[in-house]
Amino acid sequence: MSSVLRDIIQRNRAGAAVAIPSVCSAQPDVLRASLGLAQRLGRQVVIEATSNQVNQDGGYTGMTPRGFIDFVHGIADSAAVDRDLIIFGGDHLGPQAWRSHDVGHAMDKAETMLRDYVAAGFGKIHLDCSEGCAGEPAQLGDAQTAMRSAQLARICTEVADDLLFVVGTEVPPPGGARADEEGDIPPTDPAAARATLDAHDQAFGDMAPLIGGLVVQPGVEFSPTAVHHMPLDRDPGLIDSIADRPGVCLEAHSTDYQNPAVFPRLAELGFAFQKVGPALTFAYREALYGLDQLRDPLGGLQSAMEAVMLADPSKWQNHYEGSDAALYQQRHFGLADRIRYYWPTVEAQSAVTDLLSSFSVAIPDAKLQTVFGADLLDRAANGSGDQITRLIDAHISLALEPYFFEDAT
User: Fold this and answer.
1) Which value, in Å, is the radius of gyration of the alpha carbons in the chain?
2) Cα–Cα distance for residue pair 409/403, rounded to 1 Å
3) Percent of the chain beyond pLDDT 90?
4) DSSP-assigned states of every residue in 161-210
């Protein structure tokens, strides 16, 4: 399937405002809604898994790479979605999950993981070895990062040849992204982006033509409580960093919650790969909480989720800050959407099942309109499945559809 991605890159680099969305989520409702939207539009979509989420040890989802693909295919088959529309990608694949160990152990684990990813059918591989292991600096320089990424790329090519590598990393520093004096997120310096690509070209050697994407920061980000919208008139000149590499595009992370006009603008600036994740699980949570309000104005599901998150604060406490009231708001409504890590728990699943099973008869339109907007209800009316499924899918697809902005022809 790398030919699909390379065609998008070619069209983008030729001047067309085209891009493909990458959905980074393992939440089954998010996947069902995303795949259903791709099917209705007749468009390909990338479904991504991260190294912490999915690996040979199960990750925090409990799934191996093969298990993840089988999981997604099962959802696609149940929703009558053509499997050919799905491209599987691996995100930030490297030694991160084992970086508390020495580099030898961590890289051995990373090699096994990459073999498993590629053997399972992942074709878009983002290699990220930028974080140090035990006894190393927190962030490594381009040369060392590229050398380790090339080591993993070589492992991948021993398993399969239909691959497209993405390199580079542009993630917020500890404590979150920092805005400039105008309140905007500074984009990557084009010279720094070029240095990263050059280092990887040199380290990859004969594998360099397999590099198809470079992760850089265009100026999009969100915190738990605010979205940093990219100024539409900004051109950071990052396309200049790949000017002589027509087979390479730019990749943007953390594009969640941006204004719809940002996505075609990013494509104009060379970002043919655009990633989204928390915004979709945020939409899922919104749909469930809306249904919860229809069932119980006191918020029975919300109370249950509060108990689950307080019982195990490990997945949110280092990401949110403020008073008790502020922490409560961020746990349930924060844009970082750390609540997404709690939906798979037994307690949360029981609470969700209890909520959904309480709607044994159709909800009247007049009651729906007290919680859900007209656009969502119109979309849900034209969806498939039972009423509750259509409402949830509509909420998620409204968040994802702006990424499918260009004409499929």
Assistant:
1) 21
2) 16
3) 92
4) S--EEEE----PPTT-----TTSPPPPPPHHHHHHHHHHHHHHHGGGGGG
- Beta strand pairing call for 164-167 and 211-215: parallel
What one-character-per-residue DSSP string does 52-121 give?
A: TTBSTT-GGGTB-HHHHHHHHHHHHHHTT--GGGEEEEEEEESSGGGTTS-HHHHHHHHHHHHHHHHHHT
Q: What is the mean pLDDT of residues 164-193?
A: 74
- Superfamily name and number for 2-276: Aldolase class I (3.20.20.70)
- Report the 10 Å Cβ neighbour count for 364: 8
Give the residue-averaged pLDDT of 117-136.
Answer: 97
Residues of the chain with CATH 1.10.400.20: 281-403
pLDDT bucket at 113, cuts 50 / 70 / 90: very high
pLDDT for 180: 57
Query: pTM higher than 0.85 for the full model?
Result: yes
The pair of structure tokens assigned to 373 is 């907007």
| CATH architecture label of 281-403 | Orthogonal Bundle (1.10)
Strand 221-222 vs strand 227-228: parallel, antiparallel, or unpaired? antiparallel
**38 strand-pairing partners:** none
Residue 106 token pair? 């961590």
Buried b (16+ CB within 10 A) or exposed e, 63-78: bbbbbbbebbbebbee
Tokens describing residue 82: 């053509």
The pair of structure tokens assigned to 166 is 């993405």
pLDDT tens sequence across 259-283: 999 999 999 999 999 999 999 999 9
Residues spanned by CATH 3.20.20.70 within the chain? 2-276
Compute the distance between CA of residue 219 and CA of residue 228 in angstroms, rounded to an integer: 8
